[in-house]
C-alpha cells in the first residue's frame, strides 16, 4: 500500500519538505532523523496549528530542533527515506475510513505517527517523546476519540483474581486515550520521587495534599507517562507496569461473610506478590487502614501486617490530617510509607493545568454547540477563585468554576436554538463571562476585578455619606482603608477591614455597617450580626465557638464560624463589643488575622470579611482625651496648639501641665467635646488604643493592635436631625395607606419634633428622633396637644 496515494496535498507537502530538510542536513541511516523532520513539518501545518495552543507547539518544535542538531552527519542519497512509510500506511488508511475522511489529512497523519499502538525503535521513540512531553498526543487530533474511550470497560482482569476482576486499570485508560493530554503539570519533581520509591520495590507511597490540589490527577499523570514511555522520566523497566485503582467496594464485592472476605483479601495479596509490576492504587488509603471503622476493619487488619512486613506495597492518596491520624501514628505503618507532599500550585501553574483540561470541559452539549474557552477565561477563573474562595484549593476550584460556566453557556445556546433566536449569543467564553457567572452564583461582585478602583471608592464614599448623615470623618476613614486594601498593599490573608465604630447609641454605626453590606458586598443578606452582650458569662466561649464533640448541641447551633463558612464574603458586625467576656479575645484575634478554627476543628477563612466592632464604651469626653493625648505623644506641636486654643488655653502659658489639660476636658460637656473632635479633623488613634487597652476586659493589647481603623461617630446636630427627619417622613408617607397630617411639613412642627427629641440636653440619636416623630403622629391621630 502506497501511503502517498491517500495523502492530501498539504500532508504530502509536509512529507516532501521533511525529505528536503533531511537531505540538506545530509543524514540517511537514522530513522529518528526523518521522523523528527516529519513531525516538525506537520506541526507547521495550518490545520495542526489551529488545534494546538501556540506555547505547546513552540515547546515541541524547540525540542525537535535540539534533537536534529544533535544528530551526526552521514552520507545521504537524494530521495531515500530512512523510516518505513508502509508501517504508517495501514493504520492511517484505517483511521481515515473509520472517520469517513476521503484523504489522510495532516491531522490524521500526525495522529498516526504518534499512535502508541505503532511500535518504533528507541531512536524514533525519542522523537515522539518530544511531542508527548509537550503534551501532544494522537487523541488530540481524532474527533470523538476521548468519548469512545470513556465508554470502554477498564476493569482489571487477570488470572488469579476471579471472573469479576479487581478495580480499574488506569494505565489501560491512558492507553485508550481517556486523557488526550497529560493530566500532570508542574509536578515533575514529585513524580520523580514517586518513580524512585516504586522502583525501590520495598516501600509504599503516600501522596499527601489538601483536597483539590490534584492528587488523583498526579496518579493519572504517572499512568499517562508509563503508557507513552516518557524518557528520561520513566525508565524502560517500567514500560510494562500497570496501575490498578482499588476501592473498598472492589474488595468487598462478591463476599457474603467474614470467611469470604478473608479469602478475597488473601487472593488479592497472593496476586500482587506474584506480579510486582502491578501496583494497586487507593484513592483514600486512610480508610483502608482505619481499624475503628467497622465496615473496613477486616480489610485494614488483613493489609497492615503484609504492608509492615514488606510483602505488599501500594500507592495511596490522603490528606495531611488523615495521614497524621492513621499512618504517622502507627510506627510500623509509617516506616513502610514514603510521604510525597503535593502543595497547592501557584496561579501560573494552575493556569497551565486548567488549560490542559479544556478538551475535557468542552464535551457533550458544549461540543455540539461549538463552545470555546479563551486564555483570558482561564486566567480569570484562576484569579477569581484564588481571591474569593480561600477555603478551596487550586486547580480544582478553578476547573469547577470554568466547567460550570461552560455548562451555563451551552444551556443558553441550546435555549436560543430552541427559540430560533441565536443572534447575539457568542459561543466564546471570555474572562467577563466567567466573572459574571461567579457573581451570579455567589453574590460576590467581581465584574470590576480589573478596573481602576480609585473612582469606585470615591463614588462609594459619596454614596455612604448620602446614606449616613453627619458622620463625614468616620466614613472617610472607612473608605480610605477599604481602598488601601483593594490596592494590594495590605496582606491579603487579613480580613478586608477590621474596623471599630466608637460613638453614642443611635448615631449611625449599625446603619453604616448595613450600608457597607449593600454597597460593597452588594447584598444586604451578607450582613452577619452578633450581639456580644449575649456572651458575657463563663460559658461564653463554648457558646461562641459551638458545642464540642460529645456535648449536647454539637453541630446544631449556628455560630459565626458556620455562617461565614456558608458565606465568606460578609460584613460581620460585633455589636456592643465592650460587653464581651475576656475569654473571647483569643478566638477573635485568630479571626482578625484571617483564619479561625471552630470547635469541630474546621478551619474557616475570614479574609473576605469586613469586621465591624461597635461600641459606646467611651463618652465624647473620654474619646477627646484619648485623641489629644495621642496627638501629644506623637509630637504634633502644631496640632496641640490648635487644640489648646480651641479650648481657650494659651499654649504659651508656662504653667500649663498635662493634668491641667485633662481637667479642662473633664469640665466640657459632650457637645463641646464633640465640636473639638470635629476641629481636630482626625482621630489620634494611638491615644485611643492606649485608652481602650487601659479599660481591660475584652480590650486586650493584641486585639486592639489588630484594629485597622477607629471610626469616631458624633452626636447628631440639629442640621443633620432635620435631614434625617425629612427622610423618615418621606419613608412613612410612601409606606402609609392614608395621608400624613398636612402640618407635618411646616417648619414649626418639625422644630417641635426635634425639640422633643433633644429635651433635657441629652444626646440625640436617630432612634430618639424616630420615637419623637411617632409620638407627634400619635398625638395628631388622637387630637392631643403637646408631648405626653
Automatic annotation (TrEMBL):
Keywords: ATP-binding, Hydrolase, Nucleotide-binding, Protease, Repeat. It comes from Candidatus Accumulibacter proximus. GO terms for biological process: cellular response to heat; proteolysis. This is ATP-dependent Clp protease ATP-binding subunit. SMART domains: AAA. GO terms for molecular function: ATP binding; ATP hydrolysis activity; peptidase activity. The lineage of its organism: Bacteria, Pseudomonadati, Pseudomonadota, Betaproteobacteria, Candidatus Accumulibacter. Pfam families: AAA, AAA_2, AAA_lid_9. One of its GO terms (cellular component) is cytoplasm. It comes from the Bacteria. Residues 201-347, 495-638 form the AAA+ ATPase domain.
